[in-house]
Each structure stands twice: as structure tokens, then as C-alpha cells.
Design brief:
It comes from Diplogelasinospora grovesii. The chain has about 700 residues and is α/β, with parallel strands linked by helices. Helices cover about 40% and strands about 10% of the residues. It has 26 helices and 19 strands.
Length: about 700
């Protein structure tokens, strides 16, 4: 892949499994050069692909009592996948993070420490990824941090950061709230309105990003987490409540209104075939209204609130102004609304429509549902068995806990936005008080993206005088960096030459590889794939003059060498004429005499300077040295002339023929005359006087017989 790219690897170690995410973005120096000036206030543009992700089960937390096995038995397959994606020469420059969430938070502190240390040791010993700080790169992150990263990812993808004018929600507000729910915990993150922000300033996090122009971008965000409020942990608490309500020493069955009628499972959710099991069994009754009543106490709304206002479990949250705070829900919010009950064309969450679908499903007999699920083969049995409980839990958390207005039942606030922006936002559901999402513009909404956006922003050099404001987050305290400030972990070290010039070989290589990947995926036969492979290989090889000349030189050397061997087919001219001529035409060269072939063969190219060098699209077009201007003039006028000193001994040394016929055959007479028209005679004399220096020539950097400059 191209030299202009930066890469990042992050492992999301959740409660049910570990998922690998890989992101790529332009080197900030290159991005700043390529981006129009009116867009330099944007954040770096990160990209990812579905094939770059991989998830394995179970989670890292299952290795709590056997930490030494986590690397070999769990992480190695993810590392191998990352190495298949990221170019080998980029590995050392690529940071790797493993950040564990709710599953690890439930482990004792001793096991957490043992696991994180073992993971860091394993990655350092077995990979070359950048891992300078174990505490920063390998950690169990608090739920508040997870929520903050999710808030960054959401607003980054929706455009709340880069285009605030297109996302005016009223009252000077232009960002979106973030809701996440996993198996063990749930998070909320949002920027309160101005009144609430002033009132609860000590409860907010100071987040600082940096845009491509080097300017700091600050936001004040409230984040909170509820451990135990994920769907799996909530389900366990729900089962315990059922045992207290209906369980007796002699009973073997518990009625469960949150399962379809007639469904029988164990307490863990495994299906039970008949009523003769000796284990405690759940029996679905399919009464969804009762299910809502049974899950409501799990919200903890009756817990004392020591710092008003509170939402769930007596935990303080600033008042939410739904006039301006519009929330995006991910993970279980998406799967539970768009899984068993979701419609394919649903653009927004509608409480009335959603609850109607849930009730229709959850009140039916399990036998009837099971036959339909088997026929469609769309949802596995476990998801269908637990769908009613998850739906009831989501409805209670959203509307009874957080207070999201019920669309279709409650009056909605007016939106203070332009008509055009409003219509655009309505199509995407962005102005609803709550909208579940899985992807935005093809990129999964994940907190891991937010972490990598923060890291990429930290690679941008700050404006002069703004280096006091680092990228990261911490307490909302005045000053460049509060005492608890968590830095992004990145520095502004450019990949390129640092002089504003860049090689342009990368784009074609990246495009060719992308097209090849698509060909591999879409090709129905191996023959079609081979055709695409050869086509793009030839396109990549022959796209530039210097590449054609380099390839021609190598092949011609082989052909020329074979023609000289005993029995090699006669004289050199007879032995290489057909193939050599064809290769020379393919490589874009003219028919040349023996002396030029001998130079290419014997490595005496230092007597030539190739004039047909493609101008670097990133070099300055108005300024530059004489040699660079000459190179551009040569390019525009079609000149591709080996520059020969008009000193007689040099011709003798090269054994060049001096007859006019020889010059005509090589095209040197015409091309020398063209150069004389471009450069006055004094300039030619000056350039050819004595021994000419080639150190500053841009064409020398492109010479096919020289090794490219090594990147720092």
C-alpha cells in the first residue's frame, strides 16, 4: 500500500467476545497538503472495511484464571488477521490498542491486572506493532470513557464536528447524544444545553480534538455508565426476581411473561423438550404487558437520588433537553429494534409501530413462531427466545428511564433549523429524539472509531502557539491539561519528506489493490479473476515512463545475455530483435542504437539524465530551481532527451557513432534542436561546462537505476 497512509489497530474486548477493528487515514502532512483550505477545519478522515474486522468468542474475561493462555489461544488469530491487512512496512508505525469493557470490569482487580500485563507482554514479544505505553494501550476502560469514545464516533460520522451549520438543533446546539447497550453495561453521553452545562460544569468532561489546520476543537460532554444494565446482566436480575415471586421449594417451573407462549427453557436459556425435567424451567406465558411490568423495577427508579436530577439507579445525570438533544443508539439498541421486530425500510424509531410489532410476536404460540423462523432461517433460536425480554428492557430504559419521548403518542418539540437541512435530516432520522443506527455512510458506529479519531487528531501538528493544548480528555477544569488529562497517545511525526513534496505512486497502487479485491469478491470463475489480475498488474507496471524503462532494462538484459550464450540463437541482434523490439514498444521507448542499449545493460546511466519525468502533482507549480523548471518544461513539450555533453572525448568514451545517420536513427538531432529552442545557448554552455552536478535534479530522484530514498 501507499506510503501516505497511517494505520491503527484496536481490539474491543467485550463481555461476549473480542472484535478487531482496523482503521486507515492519510498522514496529516499529506492530508493538509491535499485538502482545500476551506476544509482544513475538518478532522482527519478515517476509513475502514468490513473485511478488516474480525470477532472471536468468548471474551478476554474468560481467561481471568488462566492469563498466560490469552495470547496464544485468543489474541493470535486476530493478530494474524491484522498482519494480512496492514502492509509489512507499516507495522512498526501502527499503534495497537486492546481496551476491555464491561466483561473485564466484573473481574477482581487482581485478575484484571494479570490479564492486561500478560496481553501487553505477549504483543510486545510476538508483534512489531507500536506499543510504547502498556498502561495507555492495554487497559480496562471505565464505562464513562467508552461512552465518550462513542460520542466522538457518532458526531464524527454524522458531521456534527465538521459541519455544525448543517446540524443546528436550536439554542446553538449541533451535536448528538450517544446511547450504547451491551451485554453487561449501558452508557450515555451528550452535551447538555448551555443552561445545564453551566449548572453542572463539574460533572462534564473536557474533550479536545485538533483539526487539520492545527486548531484545537473543544467540547464539554457528560458521560455516565450503568454497570449491570446491559441486556445479559439485566436478564439475570430478571430471572432472580421471577424466582423470588414464583419459586417454591417444590416447584420446577417458573412462568415467564417475557417469552412466547409454550416456550420452555432452562434458566440459562437452553431449550427444554418436555415437562419432565428435574431442573428449574421457565415456561413462556406470552403476556407482554406483564413483561413490561416485571422489567420496570430493574431500572432502580426507587433508589435515592443524592444529586438531583437522576435517571437510572439513583445516578445523577443533568437534565436532558430533548429540543436540542437528539440521541443515536447503537449495539443492542440497533439489534433489538431491527432484528426480530424491525422492518427493512424503517428509517426512524416509531414507538407505536415498534410496540405493536413486539406485541404481535410475543403473544403468539412458540410452535407457530418456530416454524416461521426455521423457514426463513434469518434469526437463530436464541435471539428469538430472548427477543421479547430485550424489547421490554429497551422500551423501559428508553422511555421510563432516560425519558425519550414516545413518537406517535407524545407531542414532539419544534426544530429550529433551516427547511433544507430539516428535510435532509428527516430522511436520515437525525432529528428524532432517538434513532438506532448500526452504520453511517457504511462505517459501523463503534466506540473504537472514536478512540482512533482521537489518536489521528493527535498526529496533526498544532498551530504556532497552540501546542499548549494537547489532544485528549479530562476533568472540566480551566487550563491546557487538567491533572487527570488522558492524552491521545500520538505525536505529530510526519511520514513524508517534511518539505511539502510527496510521491504520487501510492494512489494507483491503492486503487489497483481495491479493484483487485472487488474482482476477487465478484468474479464467478477463476478465469475472470486471472484476467483482472493481469490487467491491473500491467496497468500498474506501465503507467509511468520510468517504470516502463526500468522493466525494459531488466528484461532486455536477460534477453541480451541469452542471445550471447553459445547456442543462444546467433548474433545479439538476431537473437533479441523480435522480443526486444516488442518489449521496447510496450515500454514506450524508441528504437535505439547499440550504445544506448549498452549503457542500460552495463549500468553507465550516470552519463544520461532522463528528461521525461512525470511532474510530482504535489510540487510547487510557480516556484522552484532551474532544474525543476526545466523538468516541467521538458514534460510539457514532450522532451525526453538524454542530455549529452558536446565535448568530443565524452562521445569517444561512450563509443557513440558520430555520423548523421546514427543521430537521425536515435532521434537525437531533432530533440537537441528542441532543447536549444527552450534554453538559450549561454544556458546550455553553463549547464554543460565542466563536470555537471546532478545532486539537485528532480529527475535523478526518479532514475530507474537508483534506489529510492529510504523513509525515516
Amino acid at each position: 500500500m501507499g506510503k501516505k497512509w497511517r494505520w491503527g489497530v484496536i481490539l474491543d474486548a467485550g463481555s461476549s467476545g473480542t472484535r478487531l477493528h482496523i482503521y486507515r487515514w492519510k498522514d496529516p502532512e499529506r492530508a493538509r497538503h491535499d485538502t482545500p483550505k476551506d476544509e482544513l477545519h475538518h478532522l482527519p478522515k478515517l476509513v475502514t472495511e468490513k473485511k478488516w474486522t474480525k470477532k472471536i468468542r468468548p471474551g478476554v474475561s474468560t481467561f481471568g484464571d488462566k492469563p498466560t493462555e490469552v495470547g496464544r489461544d485468543h489474541l493470535q488469530s486476530l493478530i494474524d488477521h491484522a498482519l494480512d491487512v496492514i502492509p509489512e512496512d507499516k507495522i512498526k508505525d501502527t499503534p495497537i490498542f486492546l481496551m476491555a469493557t464491561a466483561g473485564m470490569r466484573l473481574l477482581p482487580q487482581l485478575q484484571q491486572t494479570a490479564l492486561t500485563r500478560e496481553i501487553c507482554t505477549y504483543l510486545r514479544r510476538n508483534t512489531q506493532f507500536s506499543l510504547p505505553d502498556c498502561d495507555l494501550h492495554i487497559q480496562v476502560i471505565p464505562g464513562e470513557t467508552e461512552g465518550l469514545y462513542g460520542w466522538i464516533a457518532t458526531n464524527y460520522l454524522l458531521g456534527g464536528f465538521d459541519n455544525p451549520d448543517m446540524h443546528r438543533h436550536g439554542k446553538g446546539h449541533h451535536t448528538y447524544g450517544f446511547l450504547d447497550m451491551g451485554g453487561a453495561s449501558a452508557q450515555i453521553a451528550f452535551a447538555p444545553n448551555a443552561t445545564e452545562a453551566d449548572k453542572h460544569a463539574n460533572d462534564l468532561k473536557l474533550l479536545r480534538l485538533r483539526t487539520l489546520d492545527g486548531a484545537p476543537s473543544e467540547h464539554k460532554v457528560f458521560t455516565a455508565t450503568w454497570l449491570g444494565f446491559g441486556v445479559n446482566q439485566a436478564r439475570e436480575a430478571y430471572i432472580e426476581n421471577l424466582k423470588e415471586l414464583y419459586g417454591t421449594p417444590d416447584s420446577h417451573e417458573l412462568p415467564d411473561p417475557c417469552m412466547p407462549k409454550g416456550l420452555r427453557t432452562t434458566l440459562r436459556g437452553d431449550p427444554v423438550d418436555g415437562p419432565d425435567s428435574d431442573d428449574l424451567t421457565l415456561i413462556g406465558t406470552g403476556v407482554f404487558d406483564e413483561c413490561l411490568k416485571q422489567t420496570h423495577p430493574l431500572l432502580g427508579k426507587d433508589k435515592p437520588c443524592n444529586d438531583s436530577p437522576c435517571l437510572l439507579n439513583g445516578q445523577h445525570v443533568p437534565a436532558i433537553d430533548f429540543d436540542v438533544n437528539h440521541f443515536v443508539g447503537v449495539s443492542e439498541y440497533w439489534h433489538t429494534t431491527h432484528g426480530v421486530f424491525g422492518g427493512k425500510d424503517d428509517k426512524a424509531y416509531d414507538f407505536t409501530t415498534y410496540q405493536k410489532r413486539v406485541e404481535e410476536f410475543c403473544t403468539k404460540d412458540w410452535d407457530a413462531l418456530q416454524s416461521k423462523i426455521d423457514a426463513r432461517k434469518k434469526y437463530d433460536m436464541k435471539n428469538a427466545q430472548e427477543a421479547c425480554f430485550k424489547a421490554s428492557w429497551l422500551i423501559n430504559v428508553l422511555h421510563e428511564g432516560i425519558g425519550i419521548p414516545r413518537i406517535g403518542l407524545e407531542k414532539m418539540p419544534a426544530y429550529n433549523v433551516s427547511k433544507g437541512a430539516l428535510e435532509n435530516a428527516k430522511d436520515k432520522g437525525f432529528l428524532d429524539p432517538f434513532q438506532p443506527f448500526n452504520k453511517i455512510d457504511g462505517i459501523e458506529v463503534s466506540w473504537t472509531l472514536g478512540k482512533m479519531v482521537l489518536y489521528a487528531a493527535g498526529q496533526i501538528p498544532p498551530k504556532s502557539g497552540d501546542d499548549r493544548f494537547p489532544v485528549g480528555f479530562g476533568s472540566n477544569i480551566a487550563g491546557p491539561a487538567p491533572p487527570d488529562f488522558q492524552f491521545a497517545g500520538s505525536t505529530w511525526r510526519p511520514i513524508g519528506q517534511g518539505n511539502g513534496t510527496f510521491e504520487d505512486d501510492d494512489d494507483w497502487g491503492d486503487r489497483a489493490e481495491d479493484l483487485l479485491d472487488k474482482a476477487r469478491e465478484k468474479s464467478a470463475t477463476s478465469g475472470l479473476f486471472i484476467f483482472f489480475l493481469l490487467f491491473f498488474f500491467l496497468l500498474y507496471i506501465f503507467r509511468k515512463k520510468e517504470r516502463r524503462i526500468r522493466l525494459y532494462g531488466k528484461i532486455h538484459k536477460i534477453v541480451h545475455h541469452r542471445s550471447r550464450r553459445p547456442g543462444g540463437g546467433g548474433s545479439p541482434r538476431r537473437g533479441s530483435g523480435g522480443l526486444s523490439s516488442l518489449i521496447h514498444k510496450l515500454s514506450g521507448g524508441r528504437s535505439s542504437g547499440g550504445p544506448y542499449e549498452r549503457v542500460m545493460e552495463e549500468g553507465q546511466a550516470d552519463l544520461f539524465e532522463l528528461g521525461d519525468v512525470e511532474q510530482d502533482e504535489y510540487s510547487d507549480s510557480s516556484e522552484g530551481s532551474l532544474s525543476s523548471r526545466r523538468s516541467r518544461l521538458g514534460l510539457s513539450s514532450g522532451l525526453a532527451t538524454p542530455k549529452l555533453n558536446v565535448v568530443e572525448p565524452r562521445f569517444d568514451a561512450l563509443a557513440l557513432p558520430t555520423s548523421s545517420a546514427a543521430f537521425d536513427r536515435s532521434g537525437l538531432v531533432v530533440r537537441t534542436e528542441s532543447r536549444e529552442r527552450l534554453f538559450p545557448a549561454p544556458n546550455l554552455q553553463m549547464l554543460n561546462a565542466g563536470k555537471r552536478s546532478r545532486a539537485g535534479s528532480p529527475t535523478r530522484l526518479k532514475s530507474p537505476l537508483m534506489s529510492p530514498l529510504q523513509e525515516d
